[in-house]
Amino acid sequence: MSKVVEISPTTRHEGHSKLVLKVNDAGIIEKGNWCSITPVRGVEKLAVGKTPEQVPKIASRVCGICPVAHCLAGIEAMEASIKCEIPKDAQMLRHIVQLGNRCHSIALHNILLLPDYYIPGTEVKINPFTAEEPVRSVAKRIQRLREISQTICQIAGGEAIHPSNPRIGGMYRNCSEQAKTKMYDLAKEGLTLAHAQAEFMIAVIRNYHKRDFVDVGGKKIPMPKDLGFHNQGYLATHAFYGSSSLDECPSWDINRFKEARPYDWYMGEMEVSLEDASYPVGGTTKMGTKTNPQMEACTGIPMYDGQPVEVGPRARLVTYKNYDEKGTCGQNIARQMEYQDCFYEMLDCIDALNPAGKVIADFIPDGDGSLGWASNEAPRGTDVHIARVKDWKVQYYSMLVPTTWNFATCSAALTGAPWQLAEVIMRGYDPCVSCATHMIVIDEDNRLVAQKLIQ
Amino acid sequence: MLYPEIVIVGCGNPLFADDGFGPAVIEELQKLTLPDNVAVIDAGLGAPHFIFTLLDPEVTKKLVIVDCADFGAEPGSITRLRVEDLPPGSYRDAHSWDIAEPLQRIKDRIEITVIGCQPKRVTDPEMEIGLSDEVLKAIPKTVRLVLEIIGVDYGTTIKCLQEERQRGTAKSCGSTETS
């Protein structure tokens, strides 16, 4: 007889979500639903009628973790709609900001992941806040990596947190020769640290997944070798930056995209019939509680070629670098492998940047109301913004953010794992839930608005 | 740039009406010419996991945090809080990662002042742009308070600047009332 267990709220990621799991007598997940319970917000409506300049400001405030990705995707969707090409140096500055953002996001995710893992060779779990070695020097390295990438973001993007330099048509200003040198020095220091940090992380991740049993809330849980495997396919639009409808060969196709209602996809009403008070943090939901993922889930289910896909670091490496490791282990390792890539790429971009070059397009059209989209490879996956601008007013705006893609994929990846490890699988996706719930793009006939607009 | 002596941080989300008080104060402060050892940062909604990389207890002496805070007063009232007055937070997830907990850890090494403004309405989860009039009026007062805390005397220039700006703000907000 299957039992139902609910973990709510899930911890150590961004936002509020829960896991509803149907498990068999051995505690193995038969069907899992991971759903967002953050209320839906109307950022799309807010943008309509505003001028395109206001949108980056709005978009960057949607999330405190990846303001850069939303800001850039928002701007580029506007540029795609008005058909404005930006100068190369502006592009380089944007690439630098993007890579800085990716690096400090990976470093933050390290802090969130580490408490799951063991110090290799011991039975001690890692507490990233302890003052004891060897963890202390790792924490310091993470902190330094974040400092470096935030400073680079600040130099290229104008501000350390919400970038102020990007604008429709390019950037407000280029950086000075000295600033370029400073970024170069920082990136070189970052590269060395990134190598060391990635090596450390990969070692502890492998150590964890090679164990026969792992400890969850004082209980020994068997570790399956195929933890987090799924066959849903991958979606990535660029190795590190993104694509847009202005590209000669866009790597994303709006016609292959469809969205299903959560109602058709998630499980219906159930009663929680299994409870574990020792599960961290604070135990699972009490027995007898009613749960209804169908009605409570706040995001739609986006599909590409008719099925949910995985986005994120592994999707990028699979698509562009022939990476082949699967499961949660492979996913976390892929994320660490992007550490060095960030800095190698950043050094190339800084090299290519001409501080004397112009960073704003000569002519910025007002827009004729055609539909444009831009994708940005945010740290946690493909972030697509769709916009329609006419006479310098936003007519339509929609965001399709990374974690929305991953909700359904991760739900599929839960099957076959002990329920106590469901959160480990979920954390592998580095979810950022609150921005994932800003958007349901279905009209009253249950048809996708974006598709209707193209017809 | 990196590790200034005095750090002023504005927290909050302008998409949730009065929650945008912090960033609004920062916007005003950024228009002033402040000493080189002062950094003014619009932390937006990323404060807990972003600002601590901008501090170094060896160098940083003062941290001023501007945010909206519900302390049951009239909307637009300003209060100065100590770290001890803040509710303790916990490390569970990065979005609701409370700023209070890390502040407790550094309070003995860096002088921390929190300036809270009573909001009239915070619209979370609904989005709405724009501060309420009461909170808008608290901005000049807060700017003066911040300058006092960091020991910068802007003399009479600031009054002129503020009047100019208030006219500007009123116009750009589409409000009919001007001072």
Share of residues in strands of chain A: 15-25%
DSSP helix count of chain B?
Answer: 5
Specify the CATH homologous superfamily of chain B: HybD-like
Question: Quaternary status of these chains?
Answer: heterodimer
Shape of chain B: globular
Strand content of chain B: 15-25%
Largest sheet descriptor of chain A: 4 strands, antiparallel
Largest sheet of chain B: 5 strands, mixed
Q: What would your notes on this structure say?
A:
The complex is a heterodimer of chains A (455) and B (179). Helices cover 40% and strands 17% of the residues of chain A. Chain A contains 14 helices and 15 strands. In chain A, strands 8-13-14-15 form a four-stranded antiparallel sheet. Chain A has a three-stranded antiparallel sheet with strand order 1-2-3. Chain A starts with a strand and ends with a helix. The longest helix of chain A is centred in the middle third of the chain and has 34 residues, at 177-210. Chain A has a single domain (3-454), classed as Orthogonal Bundle (Cytochrome-c3 Hydrogenase, chain B). In chain A, a hairpin with a 2-residue loop joins strand 4 (166-167) and strand 5. Chain B is α/β, with parallel strands linked by helices and 179 residues long. Chain B has one domain: HybD-like (Rossmann fold, 3-Layer(aba) Sandwich), CATH 3.40.50. Chain B has five helices and five strands; from the N terminus they run E-H-E-H-E-E-H-E-H-H. In chain B, strand 1, helix 1 (21-29) and strand 2 (38-44) form a beta-alpha-beta unit. Mean pLDDT of chain B is 78; it is low at 170-179. Chains A and B meet through helix 1, helix 2, helix 4 and helix 5 of A and strand 2 and helix 2 of B.
